[in-house]
Structure formats: C-alpha cells, structure tokens
Design a protein that fits this description.
EC 1.1.1.193; Cytidine Deaminase, domain 2; binds NADP nicotinamide-adenine-dinucleotide phosphate; Dihydrofolate Reductase, subunit A; five-stranded mixed β-sheet; eight-stranded mixed β-sheet; alpha/beta; RibDG_C; 371 residues; Riboflavin biosynthesis protein RibD; 2 domains
C-alpha cells in the first residue's frame, strides 16, 4: 500500500475465483470492508484498509484497520491482535498486502513471519511501488486469492484512494440539503435549518470521513459557516478536515468564521474546480466534501468532477429561492445529467439519497470518461 501515483500494469491473478471463497471468508471480507470504512478520513494519503485474521479452523481471532500515516497497516494490526493463533490461518484483507518498505515494513513479510497459510484479497495493489505482495507471499508458499468481492471494496472505502491513483485528483462528494422543490435557501437568503437534527448530525459524520471541505465565497458570505466537525455532544472533533474557500476575487472578510483557527483553512484563488483539486491533491487530500452553493456545484458538475452526491431532502416547499444546482447548460431532457441511486435512508423527518453520476452534461459520456 502506498500513496504513489504510478499505476501498475494489470496482472492476471493466479487464483481469481471468488466462487472458491467459503461463507466464513465472505463474512470476514464484509467485516474487513466495515473496518476500512470506519477509518475513512484518518489515513490520507494512505488507503483505508480493513483486515481480519481467521485461525486454522476459520474462526476470527484478530482484526485491524490502517492507522494514521507512519503507523502500522491493517494486516499488521490484525496480526498483533491474533498473536500465535494466526499460525496456519487465513488473512482476509481489502487491499493486496504491500511488499515495500515505506514508513513501515512490508506487510507481506509480516504475514510470512506470522505463518499465515492463505491470504484472501479484494483489490489487487494498483501501484508499482507497493506491488508484488501477492507474488512474495506465493513465493513463500502462501495460497493467495486476488479479486475476491473486488467491486464492493473498490466502490467502498477504497474509492477515494483509487481515484487518486487512477486520475491523480481527489474524489469529490457533493453534499446538499434541499426542500422537496429543490431549494437550498429561501427567497430572503436564509438557509439554516432546512433539515432536522439527525440530518445535520449526519453532515458532521460525513465531514469526518473527508480530508477537506470546500465552499465558494457565495456560501461563505451568505451563511458564514464554521465548517468544522463536531461530535454528538457539539464539541469540536480532535481531527478536523482542511477548510477550503474558493475565493478567486479575494472577497472573504478576515472576520469569517472559517478563519477562526478551530481547524486549518486554505483560501484558494484557483480559477477552476480542476485547478483547485490539483492544489488539494498536492496537499495529500484524497476525499473532498463539496458543500458550496449552487454556483460551485454546477461548476464541478459541468467539469465532470463530482464522484458521489449526498442529498438531504426536507419534506418542505418554498416555491422560491436558490436552486439545488446552478445552470448546467442543459436545455433538452435527453441531455439531462443522470445519476444512479446508491441508497436511500431516513434521517429523522428527512431523507438522505446517495447517488453516483452515470453520465455528464450533454455529451452522454460516462463519468469515468472524464475528470
Ligand atoms: N442548503 C445547502 O445545502 C446549501 C449549501 C451551500 C450553500 N447554500 C446556499 O447557497 C447560497 C449561495 O450560493 P452560491 O452559489 O453563491 O454559493 P457558492 O457556490 O458557495 O459560491 C459561489 C461563488 O464562489 C466563487 N467562486 C470561486 N471560484 C469559482 C469557480 N471556479 N466557479 C464558480 N464560482 C467560483 C464565485 O465568487 P467570485 O465571483 O467572487 O469568485 C461564486 O460567486 C446561499 O443562500 C447559501 O445559503 C445552501
């Protein structure tokens, strides 16, 4: 595992049949995905990986997730918890164990030293630098399965890190709260409390999974948001994402709450979303929460730079006020930007819809083809 940007050429895994994965390994893989998701936002620029150790009889005896950079990787944490019970057992892990020495030693060597007999991997390591772990394990006599439930892991906690490797930019989640008629603010400009406390708490949990939170000057001036992560008790969380304001004309006043010192802040004069993302990428940001208003949302969508959308819909009608998104340059229904619904959840009296764009404005091009 690493943050390197050079991509490894595709290799044909020696064992790739997930049909060969028994039920207890499939449950362990589901748990490994959960463990990876639980550390999302704390590992950048490293991948958030989850790992479960099963003993020789297939019983879970240790689990772990990537620790912040410089700390042990998921497999090493899980092996330490399993101790001697790992010998002759299986490690189930969401990303191929690394074979290189970075800030920590190679995970493949730790697995060999622990006497692991079998390793079940979801996503093959995509980078040259950290690659070769599966081969090193096989050379050491370990049975390795690659590509087991790969899509689930790649679309989950690893999605942002993989976007960094493949597109050399951060993954962008656009979050917006609107009324049933798609208004994000009332005609008088007020927008606070569109949604209820459960949805607002969910926004703080979502921010905590991101490395940066982005707004435009429009939102910074209208709402003066603080953009920090607060826990359930309302206290500032120990780890805060970078707060970012896109302010190409220098309109942000020095008294703005985003400049209050409660978390790091970056005021950017980047002329476009793509240039902003390039700036953030060099600062190790891998997952961005776009919380800006309709102008910025439209700019990111027009450039094909939104990877996931989280909409909080309040069962309210305003009939007037700022729309969910600004002009996308679309005039015909056939050219609509279409999205796939990933899931729908009730948050108190509101509804959360999570979506992924399927194609972009006009050209009918898949989201994957751009950005
Ligand atoms: N309900 C919600 O979820 C929600 C969330 C956010 C905002 N809002 C509401 O949305 C309203 C503000 O909307 P808004 O559209 O003005 O906010 P915005 O999208 O956050 O800010 C837009 C401004 O960002 C600046 N900007 C900097 N770089 C840009 C670029 N590359 N492309 C486009 N703009 C860039 C522009 O100002 P310059 O021309 O000065 O550069 C632009 O006017 C407020 O009423 C707020 O309450 C609601």
């Amino acid at each position: 595992m690493s943050n390197t940007a050079s991509e490894r050429p595709a290799v044909t895994p020696a064992h790739e049949s997930s049909a060969a994965t028994p039920a207890h390994e499939s449950s362990a893989m589901a748990r490994a995905r959960e463990l990876g998701a639980a550390v999302l936002g704390t590992t950048h620029p490293n991948p958030p990986v989850g790992a479960v150790v099963l003993d020789a009889a297939g019983v879970p005896v240790g689990e772990g997730a990537t620790t912040p950079p410089g700390g042990p990787h998921a497999e090493v944490v899980a092996l330490a918890r399993a101790g001697e019970r790992a010998r002759g057992g299986t490690v189930v892990v969401t990303l191929e164990p690394c074979a290189h020495t970075g800030r920590t030693g190679p995970c493949a060597d730790a697995l060999l030293a622990a006497g692991i007999a079998r390793v079940v991997v979801a996503v093959p390591e995509p980078t040259e630098l950290a690659g070769g772990g599966a081969q090193r394990l096989r050379d050491g006599g370990v049975e390795v399965l690659l590509g087991v439930e790969e899509a689930e892991a790649a679309d989950g906690a690893l999605a942002a890190w993989l976007t960094g490797i493949r597109r050399h930019r951060p993954f962008v989640v656009w979050k917006v709260a609107g009324t049933l008629d798609g208004r994000v603010a009332a005609a008088d400009g007020s927008s606070r409390w569109i949604t209820g406390p459960e949805a607002r708490a969910a926004v703080h949990r979502l921010r905590a999974t991101c490395d940066a939170v982005v707004v435009g000057t429009g939102t910074a001036l209208a709402d003066d948001p603080q953009l920090t992560v607060r826990d359930a008790d309302g206290a500032d969380a120990a780890r805060q994402p970078l707060r970012v304001v896109m302010d190409r004309r220098g309109r942000l006043p020095g008294t703005a709450r985003v400049l209050d010192g409660a978390a790091p802040t970056h005021v950017s004069a980047a002329p476009s979303p793509r240039e902003l993302l390039a700036e953030l990428f060099t600062r190790d940001v891998r997952r961005v929460l776009l919380e800006g208003g309709p102008t910025l949302a439209a700019a990111f969508l027009r450039d094909g730079l939104v990877d996931e959308v989280v909409v909080h819909l309040a069962p309210k009608l305003l009939g007037a006020g700022a729309p969910l998104v600004g002009d996308l340059g679309i005039s015909a229904i056939d050219d609509a930007l279409t999205l796939d619904v990933v899931d729908v959840t009730r948050l108190g009296g509101d509804v959360q819809v999570r979506l992924r764009p399927t194609r972009h404005t006009g050209a009918g091009r898949p989201a994957d083809g751009r950005g």
